[in-house]
Amino acid sequence: MTDLDDAREDFLKLRDTAPGVQLATLAEGQLPEASYAPCVWLEGSCYLYLSELSSHTANLMRNPGIGLMMIEDADETPNPFTRKRASLRGRASLVVRDDDLFERVMAEFHRRFGSVMKVIEPLPDFHMFRVEAATGSFVRGFGQAYELTGDRLEQLAHIDPTK
Q1: Cβ 50 vs Cβ 127: under 8 Å
Q2: Residue range 48-63, pLDDT digits in tens
Q3: Of the candidates 89, 87, 86, which has an alpha carbon nearest to the alpha carbon of residue 7?
Q4: H or E stretch including 40?
Q5: Can you give the pTM of this predicted structure?
Q6: Nearest-angstrom CA–CA distance, 63 and 51
Q7: Where are the chain's structural domains?
Q8: H or E segment at 54?
Q9: Mind listing the pLDDT tens digit for each residue in 64-94?
């Protein structure tokens, strides 16, 4: 296995096990707004189940551009400068409740988050968003920065700071 293969495994592990993502959305007046939401990943897309009571939901309804960040738990590494992290940029779109995709993704939310989903799934102010990332990067540590490439951003290319 190559270093690139190891890095790819680390990225996929971070992505697929993260209980949530930090969100960057645009508020009114094009001001950036940071927030957090639980998520699930399915077939290379990130899914969010968001309440209308949250400003990030209104932001996405108005402007579907979004940034996502996943970061390694601080307890996993002794040095905060070397925490594994991935930043993705893309667009969010609504997944309507009568879509077959909604049921498949909701089943994954139930599997990951348990009984709380029985409470919030039927609430009418919650909406499912599918985030399709177009660009991204993954930082594994000092000198280990990668551009994420490919259809699902699952391929890595080392970023060479000398170029």
Answers
A1: yes
A2: 999 999 999 999 999 9
A3: 86
A4: strand 32-42
A5: 0.93
A6: 16
A7: 3-158
A8: none
A9: 999 999 999 888 888 899 999 999 999 999 9
